[in-house]
Amino acid sequence: MAFSSLPKDVAWQILARVPKRLYPILACFSKNLRSLVRSPEIHRIRSLLRKDSLYISFMHTDKTNGVHTPHWFTLRRAESPNPSHENQFISVNLVFPNHDEIMPPSIVSYGPELFFISGSLIPSSTLWIFDSRTGKFRQGPSMSADHFVKSVGLVGSKIYVVGGYVNGESHQAESFDLKTQTWETAPRPNPERLFHATADVSLDRKVCALLSLGAIVVCYDPSRDGTCTSFVLPKDKWWKTGVCVIDNVLYVYYARFGLMWYDTELNVWRVVNGLDDMKKVRSVAMAEYYGKMAFLRREYGVVGGVRKEVWCRMIALDRSEGGIDGTAEPDQLMGSVPRGYKLQHCLSVE
């Protein structure tokens, strides 16, 4: 029996058990598969199966010695959800093994694993891999040379490390093949650009570095011999965790403008419609979660501001003739963290 002849409810049950990272590939095979994997129903089934979660880190900096300590939490479906508390915000014991890393490493998620690529301020070639299923780290193969001040992104089944400095020489690139678990040389960025990014994303099969200094996005294309292109960012306050890509659309949250997306056809930034009540929020994090955007924020609210509350709001994003429309669900209070904690990472994990 051909897959296309299966009843939709049976097809959804099967596809919901397929790794989500394969959905873009399946969508290329036929219009029927594309319709199935893009349906809200498949995300509803994955939600019932508790397939996905978010890994969120807050950074605490000791003002006496400057030591940075990450504190990790997960956002996941509760085992017995009720309408008002279907998600849980849980602290997890995720301790990065490299104690010499004074600044947080670059992190990329792929399936159930997080890839920690060292070399933020101190040159390093180290790779650590965290398996969310076992809660354990393992050391991966090292890069061919020490890197620091670089950008990192996932394109297909490869993690690219772009730019930075290697042994005194700038603007190198390497890729880590997730299938063979090996590093290989990648095309050199052309033209050579500075990749000291505030945030990194993968967009249109490119590694894109968002630079707050200069308000610009620089995109590296490994399929075009490292060709680099760029476009501008609106000049407004934004946060490194307030950036994400959903269905190959780049979203950035701005304090003054609210949630915006980049229209690659018109090469302009546009405001997401219908979310006027979400402007002027501070300290946010965003990521895809069961087909919607999970929008987290911190606010004062516990014991006179000693701790900050963490709130989450799910936003459905739909294309329309007028652009992209957002429909926000009611806020849910997830918990609280000490006042000094700052959002550092927000990653989708299968």
From TrEMBL:
<feature type="domain" description="F-box">
    <location>
        <begin position="3"/>
        <end position="44"/>
    </location>
</feature>
<dbReference type="Pfam" id="PF00646">
    <property type="entry name" value="F-box"/>
</dbReference>
<dbReference type="InterPro" id="IPR015915">
    <property type="entry name" value="Kelch-typ_b-propeller"/>
</dbReference>
<dbReference type="Pfam" id="PF25210">
    <property type="entry name" value="Kelch_FKB95"/>
</dbReference>
<protein>
    <recommendedName>
        <fullName>F-box domain-containing protein</fullName>
    </recommendedName>
</protein>
<dbReference type="InterPro" id="IPR057499">
    <property type="entry name" value="Kelch_FKB95"/>
</dbReference>
<dbReference type="InterPro" id="IPR050354">
    <property type="entry name" value="F-box/kelch-repeat_ARATH"/>
</dbReference>
<dbReference type="InterPro" id="IPR001810">
    <property type="entry name" value="F-box_dom"/>
</dbReference>
<feature type="domain" description="FKB95-like N-terminal Kelch">
    <location>
        <begin position="72"/>
        <end position="327"/>
    </location>
</feature>
<dbReference type="InterPro" id="IPR006652">
    <property type="entry name" value="Kelch_1"/>
</dbReference>
